Write a sequence for this structure.
C-alpha cells in the first residue's frame, strides 16, 4: 500500500472518467488501499496453498485440486458482488434523482428499495455462480418482479381509485365528444 501510494497510484482516482465512476459507485477507499487489500488476500491464499502442498498427502492434494478448480468461480462471484454494489449505487442514485425531480413523496425509501432489490439479485447471481443454489437467481427474480407488480397494482388500486375514476371519466368524456364531432359532420 505504501509503495503504491508513494508512486502516485492514488492519482488514478483524480482522472475525470475514473473520478466520475468512483463517485457514482460510492467507493470511499483510495485505490492504493483497495489494491493493497487485494494483494494481501492473494498472498494469504497462496501461502495457505504452499503450506498445504508441503504436506504432500493425498487428502491435501485433493483439497488443493478442488481449490484450484473452485477459485475461478469464487473470483467470478466476487466480481459479481462488486459489480452489483456499483450498479445498485448507480441505480439508487438515478432513482433518487428522478423521484426528487418528480416531487414524489418517499423518494429516499424508493431509492433504498431499488438498491436492496439490485443487491439481492446480484447476490443471488453470485451465489449461483459460486455453486450455492443453482436455480435461486430465477426464483429471486420471479419473486421480486411479481411482488413489485402486485405492490404497484395494489397501490394504484387502493390509493389511486379516485384518480383512476377521474382519468376514466375524462377519457369517456373525450370519447363522447369525439363521437359527437364525427356525427355532426355527417
Amino acid at each position: 500500500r505504501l509503495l503504491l501510494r508513494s508512486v502516485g497510484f492514488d492519482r488514478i482516482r483524480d482522472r475525470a472518467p475514473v473520478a466520475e465512476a468512483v463517485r457514482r459507485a460510492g467507493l470511499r477507499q483510495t485505490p492504493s488501499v483497495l489494491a493493497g487489500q487485494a494483494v494481501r488476500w492473494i498472498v494469504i491464499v497462496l501461502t495457505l496453498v504452499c503450506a498445504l502442498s508441503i504436506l504432500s498427502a493425498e487428502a491435501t492434494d485433493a483439497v488443493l485440486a478442488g481449490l484450484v478448480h473452485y477459485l475461478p468461480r469464487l473470483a467470478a462471484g466476487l466480481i459479481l458482488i462488486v459489480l452489483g454494489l456499483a450498479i445498485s449505487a448507480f441505480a439508487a442514485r438515478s432513482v433518487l434523482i428522478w423521484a426528487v425531480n418528480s416531487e414524489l413523496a418517499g423518494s429516499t425509501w424508493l431509492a433504498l428499495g431499488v438498491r436492496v432489490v439490485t443487491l439481492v439479485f446480484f447476490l443471488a447471481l453470485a451465489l449461483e455462480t459460486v455453486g450455492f443454489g443453482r436455480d435461486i437467481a430465477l426464483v429471486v427474480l420471479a419473486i421480486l418482479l411479481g411482488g413489485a407488480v402486485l405492490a404497484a397494482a395494489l397501490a394504484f388500486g387502493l390509493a389511486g381509485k379516485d384518480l383512476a375514476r377521474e382519468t376514466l371519466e375524462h377519457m369517456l368524456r373525450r370519447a363522447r365528444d369525439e363521437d359527437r364531432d364525427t356525427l355532426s359532420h355527417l
Remarks:
- The mean pLDDT is 79.
